[in-house]
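Example 3.2
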Amino acid sequence: MRRLFNRLLPKSMRPEGVIIPVVRLQGTIMAGGGQFRQNLSLASTAGVIEKAFGFGDAPAVAIAINSPGGSPVQSRLIYKRIRDLAAEKNKKVLIFVEDVAASGGYMIAVAGDEIIADPSSIVGSIGVVSGTFGFTELIRKIGVERRVHTAGKNKVTNDPFQPEKPEDVERLKTLMLEMHDTFIDLVKERRAGKLADDPDLFTGLFWTGKKGLELGLVDALGDMRTVLKDRFGPKTRLRLVTPPRGLFGRRLGLFGTFGGSSPADLAGAIADGLVEAAKERTLWSRFGL
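Structure, written as tokens:
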């Protein structure tokens, strides 16, 4: 409404300076969202991304990323949505790396026409990881017998309550290599002509933003406000784009998820939240954060 009002004003009375919409993508990348924390997924980010590209007069969209990665599928879906909207709206995408854009976070970053990183940020980790636990000794000690019945010999693989099978590990590695190849192809396509000839580039290693500049993983070093004002003029204004809110309940939490929940439902949600927190903590800790 404000942009429409400004267009109706005489040119001499319009606010000076370019407005650049800013989107902040922070957190681990996982399908869905927990009760206690918001993960990055296409479902949780699509609205705010589309809202940012809806600024008709803006020459670019600025996206700040701070993510250690997570789901390769959700990472690519977010990447694809950004690129589709950039082409549709004919806007440049400027990505700004804060603490970390690693693994799936870096996959989203390559959606940018330019990637600008803080010198001390973490970038890279172009690889795929899968982690689980084995409880075979534990259930034996506490006297628990595992019973699984299937139709199809490969229906149960990598069961944490059964001894690890070499064929299951090989099958998992094959899947991960295919995902890794998809990631590598995406980075090579988007960073064509910029990447250094370094044998470690696609091994899963990660680097500081400063080293990432040398390797061609980023285009420049800097911070969002300084870069945008240098690029579009000192009167440039940054407009943070936030998710749409309902009239009352969503902002105030008056009609929250737990309003009519049973104690059992609440306990289950808390347990799920603890598991989510543990997964998230593991991802961040890989980068010393």
